Amino acid sequence: MASPQPEGGRLSKVRQYIAGAAWLYPFKGIYYFASNRFLWPLLRARLLPCLLLSVAVLTVLSFTYLPQVAFLAIFQGKLAFFNGVFLVLGEGAVIVQLLFEAFMVDETQVDVFDAVLVNEGLLDLVSPTRDINIDGADPLKMLGRPTSAVQYAPFSFRLIFESILFLPLNFIPVVGTPAFLILTGHRAGPFHHWRYFKLLALSRKERSAFVKHRRWKYTWFGTVALVLQLIPVLAMLFLLTTAAGAALWAVKLEEEREPSDQPDQQYMDDSV
Questions:
Q1: Bigger pLDDT: 145 or 161?
Q2: Are 150 and 198 in contact (CB under 8 A)?
Q3: Of 101 and 46, which is predicted with more confidence?
Q4: How far apart, in whole angstroms, are the C-alpha atoms of residue 143 and residue 117?
């Protein structure tokens, strides 16, 4: 008969699970960004234009709220007022995702991601893809110009199309909005590690195996990241803090990654 597990052992496992839970990393990114001042200049450089962009998008969409609620009320009754908020915010998230590319926030996300890796001791992972100034005063100032084209996440027409396609799920009472968030997060999750995959020089098949092994973890990470992007006005801020969270998760994965990870299925979420 197996002896009961000590209470301390169970608590230790719970703490380990919580510490490594993928869905927590977007929140960890918020704390990390706020507590590491070397990242703040990246926010200041984008803060005003991003804030104005988010306000402008939400202001325009606010005029569509009542008409959409009226339509939802046909299917959902009183729930229409609640789900209408998520529908409008979901539309805003899609528009912001399109526009933030035009504001080159992607380059800022790469700097956030790389600076976190350098700060966490993974300079060797970053150095093959960009110049490194060893004399830099902080991890951000150590980052030089990229030696090749870099992306935090590629533009994916398929991802944008599916985000729009899934929006009508919000018409379904109670389960529609969670289904929209989870399905969209399922598709978007792996894109938050596109930069990581490139740093590892993974082939398409190797990315497939890597993602497949952590499919649900990427789903929950992507879902939480999407929920944060639905928060009015702060969407652009959370794009940067989520990049920090994605880098922290990459640090954890580097500690756990086995060299024997082998591809067994093609991952089809490449940009179009």
A1: 145
A2: yes
A3: 46
A4: 11
